[in-house]
Write a structure and sequence with these properties.
It is built from 10 helices and 9 strands. The protein is an alpha/beta fold. A hairpin with a 2-residue loop joins strand 8 (194-195) and strand 9. Helix 8 (209-227) crosses helix 10 (239-252). The protein binds 6-(benzylamino)pyridine-3-carboxamide.
C-alpha cells in the first residue's frame, strides 16, 4: 500500500516491559481508536535481541557507581528493528527527566510527524553515544524520576492520540479541552440538581447557551487567575477575556 496511510498516528515503543503498554492500548478512547486502526502502537523489547544465554539487557557503567545502564547491543538492535518499519520521517523521542517538558502544545505538535519511536529507559538510563546518534528529542513529563520511561511514553501516546482526528467522538471533542485554549477547566456539574445540600449554578439550568458559554469562560479565567496566573502571561487574550479579567481583578482583588 504505497503512500496510503493506514493509521492517523503511529507509535513505536522500545521497552523492556511491553505488557505495560496495554494500559493505554486496551482501554478507553485510545483503545477503541487502536481497534479502529486510526492509531497504531507497536512495541520492541531489547530482551528479544539479547545474544547471550542469560538474555542480558543491562550493563555496568564506566566510572563505577551504583546502578546499571541499558546494554547497548540489544537496545540498538531493538531500535533498528523499530526504525525499519516506522513511517519515513518518524522521530525518535527519549523519555527522561533531562528532556523538554511535555505540554499540550508539544502533544499537538507531535501530530504533525509521521510517527514517534518512544525510547523507554530503565535502570539509570542509556549510553550517551546512543542518545547523540539516534535520539531526535528528549521529552519529560516533569521534574520527577520514574523507574522507567514507560509511564511517560503512555502519557504521550494518550495525550497525542486523543488530539488525532476521529479519535474522540464529537461529544468528547478535544477543542473544548481546557488546555486546548490554554486555560484551566471550568467547574462541571451533573445530576442530581441538589447534592450534599448544594445546588447546581442556576445559569447551567437556564438553557441560555450564550450565558452558559460566558459563565464557563469567566470560571476558567477566574480559576486560571487564582491557580496558574503564569498561564495567562504567555497567552494572548481576546477582547472579551481581557474585559472579564479586568472585572475579576477589580471584583476579586486578585
Ligand atoms: N520525568 C520523566 O518524564 C521521566 C522519564 C523517565 C524516567 N525514568 C527512566 C529514566 C531514568 C533515568 C534516565 C532516563 C530515563 N523518569 C522520569
Amino acid at each position: 500500500l504505497i503512500g496510503i496511510r493506514i493509521s492517523e498516528v503511529w507509535f513505536g515503543v522500545i521497552t523492556l516491559f511491553p505488557e505495560m503498554l496495554k494500559s493505554v492500548t486496551d482501554f478507553g478512547v485510545v483503545g477503541k481508536a487502536i481497534k479502529q486502526s486510526s492509531i497504531e502502537v507497536c512495541t520492541w523489547n531489547p530482551r528479544d535481541y539479547a545474544t547471550d544465554n542469560y538474555r542480558t539487557v543491562d550493563d555496568r557503567p564506566y566510572g563505577g557507581g551504583p546502578g546499571m545502564l541499558m546494554k547497548v547491543g540489544p537496545l540498538e538492535a531493538a531500535l533498528n528493528a523499530a526504525k525499519s518499519v516506522a513511517p519515513a520521517g518518524s522521530k525518535v523521542v527519549y523519555l527522561s527527566p533531562q528532556g523538554r517538558r511535555l505540554d499540550q502544545a508539544l502533544a499537538r505538535s507531535a501530530l504533525s510527524v509521521p510517527g514517534l519511536i518512544l525510547l523507554c529507559g530503565r535502570y539509570e538510563g542509556i549510553d550517551e553515544r546512543l542518545i547523540e546518534d539516534e535520539v531526535d528529542e528528549e521529552w519529560s513529563l516533569g521534574d520527577f524520576v520514574l523507574s522507567g520511561g514507560e509511564i511517560a511514553a503512555m502519557a504521550i501516546i494518550d495525550s497525542v492520540s486523543r488530539l488525532a482526528p476521529g479519535v474522540l467522538g464529537h461529544n468528547e471533542s478535544a477543542e473544548q479541552d481546557s488546555f486546548e485554549n490554554s486555560l484551566l477547566d471550568c467547574p462541571h456539574y451533573t445530576r442530581p440538581e441538589i447534592y450534599r445540600d448544594k445546588r447546581v449554578p442556576e445559569v447551567l439550568l437556564s438553557g441560555n447557551h450564550e450565558k452558559i458559554r460566558r459563565w464557563r469562560l469567566e470560571q476558567s479565567l477566574l480559576r486560571t487567575l487564582q491557580r496558574r496566573p503564569d498561564l495567562l502571561e504567555q497567552r494572548e487574550l481576546s477582547e472579551e477575556e481581557a474585559q472579564i479579567i479586568q472585572e475579576l481583578r477589580r471584583g476579586q482583588l486578585i
